[in-house]
Amino acid sequence: MKYIVASTAVTDEIHYAGGATPRKIVGGAGIYALSGIRLWTHEVFLVTGVGADFEELYGDWFNANNISMDGLIVKDPKTPHNVITYFEDGEREEVPLYGLEHYQKIEVTPEELAPYF
To answer: Buried b / exposed e across 74-92, counting CB within 10 Å, b at 16+?
Structure first.
């Protein structure tokens, strides 16, 4: 593999200003970086911590986009879930549903990255 993305993969629950129906999507900086790199090459995969529920939540998305899940490390029963609220003034608030400690526990460590180099 030519590129490794070492960042988060979470559920982003997005609440829009103006009352549009909230959306729950696969998100996190790692997913957005992975998706951007995939525009230019397929030689990239994501290494990150996830919950045991991640494959059930987003396995179809990875399969539909022909993206390997080999770098996903199950570190908790639940995948992090962020509630993102956008306000009319353009500001936003992002709150980890299961708390900051849970979110940080899931993040990939340098030691966990070593086997992928």
So the answer is: ebbebbbbbbbeeeeeeee
